[in-house]
Amino acid sequence: MTKDKKSLDDQATPLLRVIPLGGLGEIGKNMLVLEADDNLLIIDAGLMFPTSEMHGIDIVIPDATYVIDRLAQVRGVVLTHGHEDHIGALSYFVEQGLRAPVYATALTQGLLEVKLREQKLLGEADLHTVTADDVIELTPFTVEFFHTTHSFPDSVGVSVLTPAGRVVHTSDYRFDPTPVDGRPTEEDKLRRWGDEGVLLLLADSTNAERQGTTASEASLEATLDTVMAEAPGRVLLATFASNLGRVQQVINVARRHGRRVGMVGRSMVNNVRIAIKLGYLDIKEEELLTAGEMESLPGNQVVIVATGSQGEPTSAMVRMSMGDHRQLMLRAGDTVVLSATPIPGNEELFNRTVDNLFRQGANVLYHELGNVHVSGHGGQEDYLRMFALTRPRYFIPVHGEYRHLVLHARLAQQWGLPADRVFILEDGDTVEFGDFSGTGEIEARRGEKIEAGHVYVDGLGVGDIGNVVLRDRRQLSQEGFIVCIVAVDEYDGEIIYGPEIISRGFVYMREQEDLIRRAQEAVSKVIKKKAPTSVLENKIKDALGNFAAREIGRRPMVLPLVIEM
Question: Mutual orientation of helices 219-230 and 244-256 as an angle, nearest 10°?
Answer without folding.
Answer: 50
